[in-house]
């Protein structure tokens, strides 16, 4: 791992003890992606800057001992990054993902690195919502749909942390037709106009 990335990860909220786990995760992703089409062919070139650091920002927004559910986890962003951090400072992560090969990869990383995490292979709409502190999602769906997915967990008290790109204000406007939100837009460290939307309450209009 380059020194600049190490510093950026720690600034974003990752513990120093978590860094070797992140290296283990990225190593496994590199192995698996050569056998399975888990991420795009060029994405490995910017894996640390774009995906790991992006996800690490979430670690700075959750607290020690947090229970987290990550929906639409794909190859583990941000779910596995948060699970690596949870091994260092407590808490656990559940990842809900529908695609079998991605679930197999997520489970392999959990087992290999002994992470405090589990995978639920299911469509989000059919998953059982357990009580958690945070629900996270990245690159999954436009905000109105995302709020529908997250509602079962949010109505039990979870705070949502959603990565959103430069259209985030439009998405908030669209969502306001259906939802009243108590939210905060936290500037992203990795995307000039992107934000992490922290939503503490969502009520249907
Ligand atoms: C674009 S990928 C993003 C993956 C990851 N969050 C990231 O940022 O790299 C979206 C993922 O969500 C999963 N997904 C989409 N709709 C879903 C649903 N309704 N239930 C469960 N998983 C879903 C897809 O299989 C895919 O792995």
TrEMBL record:
GO CC, any one term: cytosol
Pfam families: GidB
S-adenosyl-L-methionine recorded as keyword: yes
This enzyme's EC code(s): 2.1.1.170
MF-aspect GO terms: rRNA (guanine-N7-)-methyltransferase activity
Residues binding S-adenosyl-L-methionine, per UniProt: 72, 77, 97-99, 124-125, 138
Origin superkingdom: Bacteria
Entry keyword annotation includes Cell division: no
SUPFAM superfamilies xrefs: S-adenosyl-L-methionine-dependent methyltransferases
Catalytically driven reaction(s): guanosine(527) in 16S rRNA + S-adenosyl-L-methionine = N(7)-methylguanosine(527) in 16S rRNA + S-adenosyl-L-homocysteine
Keywords assigned: Cytoplasm, Methyltransferase, rRNA processing, S-adenosyl-L-methionine, Transferase
Entry-linked CDD domains: AdoMet_MTases (cd02440)
Location within or outside the cell: Cytoplasm
InterPro entries with a match to the protein in the record: rRNA_ssu_MeTfrase_G, SAM-dependent_MTases_sf
Family: Belongs to the methyltransferase superfamily. RNA methyltransferase RsmG family.
Function comment: Specifically methylates the N7 position of guanine in position 527 of 16S rRNA.
HAMAP family: 16SrRNA_methyltr_G (MF_00074)
Name under which the protein is recorded: Ribosomal RNA small subunit methyltransferase G
Organism in which the protein naturally occurs: Henriciella algicola
């Amino acid at each position: 791992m380059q020194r600049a990335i190490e510093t950026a990860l720690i600034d974003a909220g990752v513990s120093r003890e978590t860094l070797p786990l992140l290296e283990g995760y990225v190593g496994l992703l590199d192995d698996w992606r050569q056998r399975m089409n888990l991420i795009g062919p060029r994405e490995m070139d910017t894996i640390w800057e774009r995906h790991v650091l992006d996800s690490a920002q979430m670690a700075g927004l959750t607290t020690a001992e947090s229970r987290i559910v990550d929906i639409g986890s794909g190859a583990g962003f941000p779910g596995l990054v948060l699970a690596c951090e949870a091994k260092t400072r407590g808490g656990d992560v559940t990842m809900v993902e529908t695609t079998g090969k991605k679930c197999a990869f997520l489970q392999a990383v959990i087992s290999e690195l002994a992470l405090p995490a589990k995978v639920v292979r299911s469509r989000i709409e059919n998953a059982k919502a357990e009580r958690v502190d945070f629900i996270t999602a990245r690159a999954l769906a436009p905000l109105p749909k995302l709020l529908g997915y997250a509602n079962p967990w949010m109505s039990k008290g979870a705070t949502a942390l959603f990565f959103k790109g430069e259209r985030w204000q439009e998405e908030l406007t669209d969502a306001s037709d259906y939802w009243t939100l108590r939210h905060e837009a936290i500037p992203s460290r990795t995307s000039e106009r992107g934000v992490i939307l922290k939503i503490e309450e969502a009520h249907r209009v």
